[in-house]
Amino acid sequence: MPEENSQFNSLSEQARLINIALKYTNGDLEKAKLMASGQLNDVSIIKGRFASDSTLTYGIFVVFINYINKYIVNVSSLVMSTKSIFEKAKIFNTWKSFYSDFEMFIREEAEFNLDASGFTNHLSSSIMGYDIFSHLDREDLDGVTADVKEIIGKFLDDYRLQCQIDVEKTSSLSLELEGIAVEVPAIEAPLPEEEPALTEEDRIIAKIEEDAEYIVPGRVIVSPVRGKYIKDIKSGEAIKIIFSNRDEISLTIARMLNALTENDEYIPVKARIKAKIPTGGGGYIIYGVIAKNTLAKIIEEENVKIEMDLTQGQTNTTKSESSLLLYIALLLGLLSLTLFVILYLL
Questions:
Q1: Are the CB atoms for 244 and 251 separated by under 8 Å?
Q2: Is 327 domain-assigned?
Q3: How does pLDDT run across 136-148, given as a tens digit for each residue?
Q4: Which residues make Cβ contacts (< 8 Å) with residue 27, sequence separation at least 6?
Q5: For 115-174, how does the pLDDT look when each residue is reduced to its tens digit (9 = 90+)?
Q6: Same domain, 48 and 169
Q7: Among 39, 128, 194, 277, which residue's Cβ finds the most Cβ atoms within 10 Å?
Q8: Range of the structural domain that residue 6 is part of
Q9: Dist CA 68 CA 66 (whole Å)
């Protein structure tokens, strides 16, 4: 059980990450899955420091840029009149380490910050007028450095300043998980179409699926000789089903139920009927419970004969047969005793 709970917890966490990632992939589920698994990055992080001895202005900054959709996610900076901040900043550390130090510097040096908002706004607005997105696409560090140095030089009126940067990639999902504010540009949504009124069938399906934590697609196993027609099966009965999709959730649940061969092929599992909903044309939608809060959804277009799980039925039949044999034995014994008494009295 602990291993089973661990698998479900892992599955729930993965589903949570995918759900967060969806808003950064414009609803694209496949890209969201890649982002949740760390295989898709969309953000370049520019970590930098500069020193202008002629103006006695020194600073550090971090710029988060969505290089795929070409917009600025977040910009922060710290500008001071002492060179210590320039010397302390370790821009070649990982972005998480650098950002942690950056936040510490902000807390410790807040009262000495020189018009950081003015510098931050200048840096943010100027980036859009340069070719930085193209440099980031090509991973051209020299090009990014030259553009950023020119932007800062214009702000300080000092083109001889020192400027060092490093660039690292991550994802919008990682930023959110680290508590960094991620701005997504507003997209004007089209006017929603008027939705048709829900049918009773739609309401039933919505209620069933709302109550379940996981729903995986499946299919019935056709059994023309010994099977039972779908129209005749009832709630609570058990049928044999097999998973039909090879998505991450289906595979994880299959492993938990030992429903995979050594070659990762699906094998049938038992599903206890929760609901059977008729559809137009003689078909049915079947929901079967395969694990706690987990349903298999089967869409069958015809009223075919399907394989039932007779394990429980066989057990009950065996018990009934045993009871009948015991009853017959007792009855024969009673008859024999009665016959013996009658013969004895005669």
A1: no
A2: no
A3: 888 899 999 999 9
A4: none
A5: 667 899 999 889 888 878 888 888 899 999 999 999 999 999 998 999 999 999 999 999
A6: yes
A7: 277
A8: 2-36
A9: 6
